[in-house]
Amino acid sequence: MNYKNNIIKVLRADKLEFDARPQIAKIFADGFSQWLVYFSKDHNIIEKAFAHMFVLDQFYVAFCDNTIMGVAACTDCRSLSVKLNKKELKKHLGFIKGNMAILFLKKEFEREFENPLPNTGSIEFVGTSSEFRGRGIATLIIQYIIDNTPYNDYLIDEVADTNVAAMSLYTKLGFKECKRIPIPLKRAKKIGINNFISLKYSKDYNN
């Protein structure tokens, strides 16, 4: 795939010749700020507060001319792709909200799989820079992960059923729904989501 006559490459983030964290943080803020408005409505603050957390050897990025266009993490369902630091969160979000971020987000972001399956990768934190959406960047990264990591199966956990674009992308890549978690009616009305859907890809039925 090309951009302005230059080839878009995909590489593990720790293999880049520049620090990927600030750009990954910007993509994260663009994609996840709607869930973090309690902590700050300012995308710049969200970027700075969470830039520390990305474990670079678990992230893959699509980039061109040192510009990161999209990201996705892939773990072995045991390792963490992000690790929150209380000091950094308090520094950027303040004492109270920094502590609240650790209290609530650590459970969400650093949640471990129960009885992780062998030979299975977990694809997480998929995001594309707003400037490059609609160009197949996420497809490029996920396909690279499938082709270049050693797992037979891949999970994508808890996709909102209202995220039509993401569901369409994963379905086209060969992922199939494997679990559906209904949201309690009161919360569903508040967040605008009816179900969280988990999807699975297996090389056994996609090759």
Nutshell version of this structure?
The chain is of the alpha+beta class and about 210 residues long. It contains eight helices and nine strands.
- The mean pLDDT is 91
Strand content: 25-35%
Given the structure, what is the number of helices? 8
Helix content: 25-40%
Oligomer: single chain
Tell me what the CATH architecture is.
3-Layer(aba) Sandwich
Write down the domain tally: 1
The CATH H-level superfamily is Gcn5-related N-acetyltransferase (GNAT)
Main β-sheet, spatial strand arrangement: 3-4-5-6-7-9-8
Q: In one word, what is the shape? A: globular
Radius of gyration: 17 Å
Q: Which structural class should the secondary elements be placed in?
A: alpha+beta
Reading off the top of the CATH hierarchy, the class is best stated as Alpha Beta
Summarize the SSE layout with pairings.
Elements: E1 2-3, E2 6-7, E3 9-12, H1 21-32, H2 43-50, E4 59-64, E5 67-75, H3 86-93, H4 95-109, E6 120-128, H5 137-148, E7 153-160, H6 164-173, E8 176-182, H7 185-191, E9 195-202, H8 203-206
Parallel strand pairs: 6-7
Antiparallel strand pairs: 1-2, 3-4, 4-5, 5-6, 7-9, 8-9
List keywords for this structure.
8 helices; single chain; Aminopeptidase; about 210 residues; globular
Structure description:
The protein contains 8 helices and 9 strands. By secondary structure, the protein is an alpha+beta fold. It has a single domain, classed as Gcn5-related N-acetyltransferase (GNAT) (Aminopeptidase). A hairpin with a 2-residue loop joins strand 1 (2-3) and strand 2. Helix 1 packs across helix 2 (43-50), helix 2 (43-50) runs antiparallel to helix 3 (86-93) and helix 3 (86-93) crosses helix 4 (95-109). It is globular, with a radius of gyration of 17 Å. 31% of the residues are buried. The model has no long low-confidence stretch (mean pLDDT 91).
